[in-house]
UniProtKB/TrEMBL annotation:
GO molecular function term, any single one: nucleotide binding
Function: DNA-dependent RNA polymerase catalyzes the transcription of DNA into RNA using the four ribonucleoside triphosphates as substrates. Specific peripheric component of RNA polymerase III (Pol III) which synthesizes small non-coding RNAs including 5S rRNA, snRNAs, tRNAs and miRNAs from at least 500 distinct genomic loci. With POLR3H/RPC8 forms a mobile stalk that protrudes from Pol III core and functions primarily in transcription initiation. Pol III plays a key role in sensing and limiting infection by intracellular bacteria and DNA viruses.
Assigned GO CC terms: RNA polymerase III complex
Family named by the database record: Belongs to the eukaryotic RPC9 RNA polymerase subunit family.
Lineage of source species: Eukaryota, Metazoa, Ecdysozoa, Nematoda, Chromadorea
Name of this chain's protein: DNA-directed RNA polymerase III subunit RPC9
Pfam families, per the entry: RNA_pol_Rpb4
Amino acid sequence: MEVINKMVTLLPNVEVLKIINETRARETKKKKHDQDSKLSTLLFETSSYLNQTPVASQNEEHFCKLVEALKPVKLTQAEILQVANLRPSSSIELQLIIEDCEERIKTEEQLEVLVGKITAVLPPLAPKSVDQGKTTNGSQAS
């Protein structure tokens, strides 16, 4: 693999997951080599991780709608990506994402409206499985 144009743009996790799934589909059709197995492992592990995050239930259309909904707030590109990737569901989570939030969003009500827009545009979070709260030896994580 060769990087042609480095740092052209930042990608939301939904786009990364799409690219990984497309690459995995292509890789399964190719002949297996040692190098391919390393790539397959990397793709599998990354896909597994992203499928456990809020992005698993999103698609590109959700991301586009989110960008439109957030335009009046004038968030930076990095902040929009973090909102899409992390899907904050409370004003506290959103305050951690937005730099200088107290200065840019004056009231708690405005912040709650913004959280409402985010939860309205992005799909509901997928229910977490019971196994996600357990460690490898089967005991509950604390």
